[in-house]
Design the sequence.
């Protein structure tokens, strides 16, 4: 198939490169010339394992180009995938970029005789595709939906695993306006990707995406709530509790006696909360969208509330342990919202930094690749400094908080805490250290969900 992709952000670029790798002819479109030039120089503007190698491959193979020329892309392809940003601001999802893209595509479709499918890939609140996008396309093209195709095909990519997730999806959700739209979209995936294709209407596709993210986020907040109960009970480890729960076959499908995927319930893991560009934004957007429809969600709201307070609690627990945090040197291991990314959007580290600074602590933060991004958001001053490596951060610290489960931090030897720190107190926000091993070395260990 010949496919245009509008927007070379995370979803757009990964989808473009992967679809080209699977043999489709892809043109990625963006207004930002510098990004297009960068991509055509075979460099990826985002950090994503495996993406740059694949980009080089598809450019060499001739199945992928990046361009600013939307008109020629739409005129010469069968499908336009809209993968522009849908930021959350002022308590609502902002659909301006979606609307603009639909208008620009529609104006080109006015002149195009051949059938063309417009497919939304960005995460949008239910009804966006069959109302806003359809109306804008109809008004700008002068055609009725049906004369052009309309589809909604959400992405379930995780940062750091985006290429793998795209190439080996669990399912393809295809929301279609009519049968013809579905048939065209099916050709993108059928027999090319090894996954079931789920045919639904446009708003069901949109709803599946939000429901998936809200469920995973809710599993995390649920785990964090159980962790708090465990801390109060004492001598109970939330990790053991959740493992004991998830081995239930009702969570984990089995073949014979073998669990298909023991990692499947991995979102039942307590810690200092979820962050990133998707979960917080999408769960908030779903809540506010539903509220506008007349139902203020309760469970989803609680998921968000628990996630706001979870990073605060780790600071409060440390404060209770040390007596005060004022003028204490606190090392912060990890700034990224999860390992293997430099993304700090909505990272629990930002809340932890705010809470520590509010208590007049001196923060010494370290992260393998996310320091530059953090400086851009919260700056750098006498009370908030950045270390070159974890040894420097730990030097003479009164306590350390582990925020991101980077593999390098998990390897820190227990006696390094004892040797380097003034007082070896470790607050483990991701439960990557072994309490017994650390305590045997003389470390005071505070683990989420363990007291
Ligand atoms: C998520 C969804 O997984 C993906 O399907 C969707 O398309 C986009 O949002 P991503 O934001 O890349 O992907 O991150 P993910 O790996 O799912 O982790 C999200 C957050 O949850 C991280 O902050 C992580 O640390 C946290 N988390 C995850 C937990 O706190 N506990 C867990 O058990 C799992």
Sequence:
């Amino acid at each position: 198939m010949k496919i245009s992709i509008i927007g070379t952000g995370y979803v757009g670029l990964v989808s473009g490169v992967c679809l080209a790798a699977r043999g489709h002819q892809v043109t990625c479109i963006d207004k930002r010339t510098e990004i297009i030039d960068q991509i055509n120089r075979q460099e990826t503007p985002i950090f994503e394992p495996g993406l740059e190698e694949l980009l080089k491959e598809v450019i060499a193979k001739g199945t992928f180009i990046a361009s600013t020329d939307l008109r020629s892309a739409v005129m010469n392809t069968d499908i336009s995938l809209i993968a522009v940003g849908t930021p959350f601001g002022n308590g609502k999802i902002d659909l301006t970029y979606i609307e603009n893209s639909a208008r620009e595509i529609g104006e080109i479709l006015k002149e195009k005789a051949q059938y063309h499918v417009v497919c939304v890939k960005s995460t949008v609140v239910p009804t966006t595709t069959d109302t806003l996008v359809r109306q804008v396309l109809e008004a700008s093209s002068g055609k009725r939906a049906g004369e052009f195709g309309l589809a909604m095909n959400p992405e379930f990519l995780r940062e750091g695993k985006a290429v793998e997730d795209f190439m080996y999806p669990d399912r393809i959700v295809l929301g279609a306006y009519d049968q013809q739209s579905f048939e065209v979209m099916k050709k993108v995936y059928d027999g090319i990707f090894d996954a079931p294709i789920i045919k639904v209407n446009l708003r069901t596709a949109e709803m599946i995406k939000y429901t998936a993210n809200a469920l995973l986020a809710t599993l995390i907040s649920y785990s964090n709530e159980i962790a708090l109960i465990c801390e109060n009970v004492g001598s109970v480890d939330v990790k053991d509790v959740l493992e004991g729960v998830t081995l239930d076959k009702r969570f984990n499908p089995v073949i014979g006696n073998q669990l298909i995927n023991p990692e499947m319930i991995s979102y039942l893991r307590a810690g200092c909360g979820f962050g990133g560009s998707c979960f917080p934004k999408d769960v908030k957007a779903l809540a506010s969208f539903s509220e506008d429809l007349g139902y203020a969600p309760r469970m989803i709201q609680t998921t968000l509330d628990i996630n706001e307070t979870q990073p605060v609690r780790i600071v409060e627990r440390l404060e209770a342990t040390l007596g005060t945090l004022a003028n204490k040197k606190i090392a912060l291991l990890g700034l990224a919202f999860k390992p293997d990314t430099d993304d700090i959007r909505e990272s629990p580290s930002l809340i932890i930094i705010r809470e520590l600074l509010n208590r007049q602590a001196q923060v010494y933060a370290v992260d393998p690749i996310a320091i530059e991004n953090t400086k851009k958001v919260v700056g750098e001053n006498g009370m908030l400094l950045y270390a070159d490596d974890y040894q420097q951060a730990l030097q003479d610290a009164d306590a350390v908080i582990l925020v991101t489960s980077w593999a390098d931090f998990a390897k820190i030897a227990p006696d390094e805490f004892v040797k380097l720190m003034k007082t070896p107190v470790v607050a483990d926000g991701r439960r990557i250290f072994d309490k017994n091993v650390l305590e045997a070395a003389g470390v005071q260990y505070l683990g989420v969900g363990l007291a």
Notes: The first strand starts at residue 2 and ends at 6. The pocket of uridine-5'-diphosphate-xylopyranose is lined by residues 155-159, 213, 216, 220, 266-267, 269, 271, 274-276, 278-279, 337-338 (CB under 6 Å).
